[in-house]
Amino acid sequence: MQEQLVFVRNQMLPPEAPPPGQKGIARWMRENLFSGPMNSALTLLGLLAVVWLALHVLPWLMHSVWNANSLNECRQIIQDRWGEGATGACWAMVRERWHQYLYGFYPQDMYWRPNLALLLLFAALAPVLFSSLPRKMLWITALYPATGFWLLWGGTIWAPVVAMMGFVVLWLVFTVLQPRLGVPVSAGIGVVAAAVWWMVLQAPMTDALQSLAPLRIRAVDSRDFGGFLLSFVIGVTAISASLPMGILLALGRKSDMLLVRTLSVGFIEFIRGVPLITLLFTASLLLQYFLPPETNFDIILRVIILVTFFAAAYIAEVIRGGLAALPRGQYEAADALGLDYWQAQRLIIMPQALKISIPGIVSSFIGLFKDTTLVAFVGLNDPLKGITQIVRADINWKGIYWEPYIFAGALFFLICFGMSRYSMWLERKLKTDHR
Amino acid sequence: MAFVQDAPKDSFRLSMLIYDTRYRSLTIQVVVLILFMLFLSWLLNNTIQNLAAKDRTFDFGFLLSRAGYDINQRLVEYTNDSTHARAAFIGLLNTLLSAVVGCILATIIGVVVGVLRLSNNWLVSRLMTVYVEMFRNVPVLLWILLAATILSETTPNPRDFRVTPEMQAAGEAPKATMLFGIIAVTNRGTDIPEPKFCVGKPREECDADPNEGGLGIIDLGIFKVSLNLLALLVVFGGSIFATRRLKRQADATQDATGVRPVTWWKNLLILVLPSAALLWALGLHFVVPELKGFNFAGGITVLHSFTALTLALALYTAAFIAEIVRAGIMAISRGQSEAAAALGLRPARTMRLVILPQALRVIIPPLISQYLNLTKNTSLAIAVSYMDLRGTLGGITLNQTGKELECMLLMMGIYLTISLIISSCMNIFNRAVRLKER
């Protein structure tokens, strides 16, 4: 039998080259653009849209003018350069007004202060976001509220220092009393002591220290804040203050205690049920009714308080989602270990629940950051409406509309898109399970 | 060796209120209740003092007094002699109109974009990604302002539509022409044809009448109901009922014989014919807007503020809905459609019977919360001076009467009611489609 075999191939044939339509760009186009009549039609439609857009937008962008003092001058330059009837973008407006978009009416010679505050913000956020950094850096985070406030608003350094000392008072009272009275009672007394400090001692202490050592930088009025500086101040303060509040509300909503649960649900549903604008109007119109007579504090602070409530309600729902996603076994395991409620929350439940909620928290933050533009309606200079209105009211730039909106929109896009990409990256990094 | 252990004392010590888990939750609740009550009474006390200091009262009587201002878009009858309450009602209707139109538009755009983003067409899916990311990452206020500015600054003046005899002689075209010959977009608004009904009268006579004609209207006190619309609703409802019966019959036939009768053309006829016949009998015709003097007359003028607000909200929300739809479809595992194919279901029925019911369970809850967001975002009407609830009750009424507290509380209450209604719809839906576990 063996001899009858005439030919046995003992080496592989070299692979044939694919037919011309099956390789390279032709194949890719057939598979991805023209795989059927429906797809071909869609591709053609898409191409048509792209070409139409390019024909309209590209000449406009190519005819950009960066050096001019008014819209009319811009148009004149465009007519001279590219002929009658040409249209072009007038970025000279951005060149002249960019600082208002970024800082509002913050005094120009003190731009280093918000810039430094922003840098410090990143330094303060870094140890929270990247666990590999040394834990000592958390002190920057803890001190940031005072330093940030002082840099932005200026005035005497002693006001934020004395305010921070309130927390020291709280901690001192707590550590002294805790061995004798236990955690809940000593924490309560600590909070009361800190409150007394802030209400009674804050003002005289600040004045006394200021007269002893007059350390102050020029104060900046809240009305001068504007542009992205204002958006950042409101957004960052509100989101960082709303996180602890949101966690407490989420725990309250899942609590067994009827009263606590009812109050939490009522608060969350009320805030989520009304538009942010009504809350902002509450800040500007109604707080004067609800607070003791003669109290009159800063409009930015009032807005921040209401925006914090708003964000806290949304964050509470996000965290509740995270809590609900945890398997019951985790709670039972914590109980089996003999941990009490707060220990279980701190060591077992919250680390996992917060990890699950990160994408939701970041998207609430993006939403909140976008919503900071609504402060325009209570008379603050937000980057979108407030500043653009000021620019368009200027006789030189009357009638300009594409450029300011494109500029502000592009900045918003960069920030929000960046944050959403960061959250996607973080989500992948923190994913430790292999479901 | 005897080991004596003290029996736990049964006596009650004060510290047990905090450290004994039997009493602790009670203690906490009592403390919370006391703090809450203190807080409430503090707020109330402040409010009363402040009201007294400003020499104001807290009452809603102003709602029944004459409003004295005009509203440029009214769905039901309103004059400046009407009450503040009616002005608020008009504002509420405007809010709801913008919300409903916006939701419908957003759903259509969102579903199309979401499905196209999943398509294997490289160009189209990239374009849709660009659309979604562009609209999601920029404040909605920008889209509203941009839409309003473009509509008011780039649209022609009504006089640009005019064709003078000289121009006709010279063969010149006017600077602007109407869309399809029936829609005129001017810098004052968009003029669209108005449906009119006419029964038993010459058409010219009907057109001269400001009312919509036909069967007329009945006055319900608060608002008037068009009998034409009512008749149309009754007939259309009957048609829907008939198609349901047809479906049941078809189901029965399929159960008995295994063959499903073809019903789509019968359904179409039942749905379209009676309504069309009714509309013909009522003498439906459209009055096309015409340039008269300095402005367009006849037809309905849709304000640019409404168009800009609704369009911008719809485009913005559609980007979120597209993501929801995409996630919902991707959440269904491939095994489901393969199993359906193995059972011998055609692709269309696979979609309708297997994929959609499961995808909808994932899609609908976030979709409804997007509707809720859109409804709340209509309060951004303030940016384009559209007279919604905030523009009437929370705007002019508040400024005229100075009743800040009452107006704001009422407005919040109304928004809250709308939200609660929408979210209770969602709860009902969730309960209906919840996985039935046994």
TrEMBL record, chain A:
It is a multi-pass membrane protein. Gene3D superfamilies: MetI-like. The keyword Membrane applies. One of its GO terms (cellular component) is ATP-binding cassette (ABC) transporter complex. It is found in: Cell inner membrane; Cell membrane. GO terms for biological process: amino acid transport. Its main location: membrane. This is Amino acid ABC transporter permease. One of its GO terms (molecular function) is transmembrane transporter activity. The keyword Endoplasmic reticulum does not apply. CDD domains: TM_PBP2 (cd06261). InterPro entries: AA_ABC_transptr_permease_3TM, ArtM/GltK/GlnP/TcyL/YhdX-like, MetI-like, MetI-like_sf. The chain crosses the membrane at residues 41-61, 111-130, 150-174, 181-200, 228-251, 263-287, 299-319, 356-380, 400-419. Residues 228-423 form the ABC transmembrane type-1 domain. It holds the Pfam family BPD_transp_1. Belongs to the binding-protein-dependent transport system permease family. HisMQ subfamily. Keywords: Cell membrane, Membrane, Transmembrane, Transmembrane helix, Transport. It comes from Gemmobacter lutimaris. It comes from the Bacteria.
UniProtKB/TrEMBL annotation, chain B:
Keywords: Amino-acid transport, Cell membrane, Membrane, Transmembrane, Transmembrane helix, Transport. CDD domains: TM_PBP2. It comes from the Bacteria. Residues 92-427 form the ABC transmembrane type-1 domain. The chain crosses the membrane at residues 23-44, 96-118, 225-243, 264-288, 308-332, 408-429. It is a multi-pass membrane protein. One of its GO terms (biological process) is amino acid transport. The keyword Transport applies. SUPFAM superfamilies: MetI-like (SSF161098). Pfam families: BPD_transp_1 (PF00528). One of its GO terms (molecular function) is transmembrane transporter activity. Gene3D superfamilies: MetI-like. InterPro entries: AA_ABC_transptr_permease_3TM, ArtM/GltK/GlnP/TcyL/YhdX-like, MetI-like, MetI-like_sf. Its main location: membrane. One of its GO terms (cellular component) is ATP-binding cassette (ABC) transporter complex. It is found in: Cell inner membrane; Cell membrane. Belongs to the binding-protein-dependent transport system permease family. HisMQ subfamily. This is ABC transporter permease subunit. It comes from Gemmobacter lutimaris.
